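Lecture 7 notes: from sequence to structure.
We start with the chain below.
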Amino acid sequence: MKNTRTLNTFLALSFCLFTFSAAQAQNDVMVGGQAMYAQKDIIDNAVNSADHTTLVAAVKAADLVATLKSEGPFTVFAPTNDAFENLPEGTVATLLQPANKGALTSVLTYHVVPGRLDAKELMKLIKKGNGTAELTTANGGKLWAMMNGDMNVIIKDGSGNVAHISTYNVYQSNGIIHVIDRVVLPKM
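Predicted C-alpha cells for the same chain:
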C-alpha cells in the first residue's frame, strides 16, 4: 500500500514536471540558430542570436543595454543583420560613431514599443483600427501594423518602408521580440 502511494506520488510529480517543461518549451523559439528562453530578458537572449550581431552591437554603442534588461515590458521589432546590410552603404558605420550616438539611439528606440504585444494582440489592434494599428514607439515616433494576408503582420515606418515579421512571438521575461527583415526608420 505504501509502495503504491509512493509510486502514485512519483508519477504525479513526474507528470507535473513534464507538463511544465513542455509548456516552457512551447515558449522557447529558435532565432539565429539559438534557443531564445522566455525566462531570460531581451538582451540575454539577443546576444546569442547569430542573426542579430549588428543589432546587439548597436544597442551596446547606444548604451541601451540597461534599458532593455530592465523590467519593461517592451515589444521589440528586431531587424536581422541582413536588414542592416540593406541600408545604404556606410549607414551603420556612421551611426556607430560616438558623435552619432543620439541618432543611433533614436533609430533603435524607434524599434521598441512599450508593452507586450504578441501577434494575437497586434492582430486585435489592427482589426480594431479597421486594418491599421498605430503604435507609438519608445522614441515617440509612430509605426503602423497592418495585415498582409490572413496571418501575416507587416510594419510600416514613417518613411513608408515596410518590414515583414519573419519570426513572431519570441517571448522574453521583460517583453517580446518579433524578428523583422528591414530596419524601420522614422520620417527624417
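Points to note: The first helix runs from residue 2 to 27. Strands lie at 29-31, 34-36, 74-79, 112-114, 132-136, 142-147, 153-156, 162-172, 175-180.
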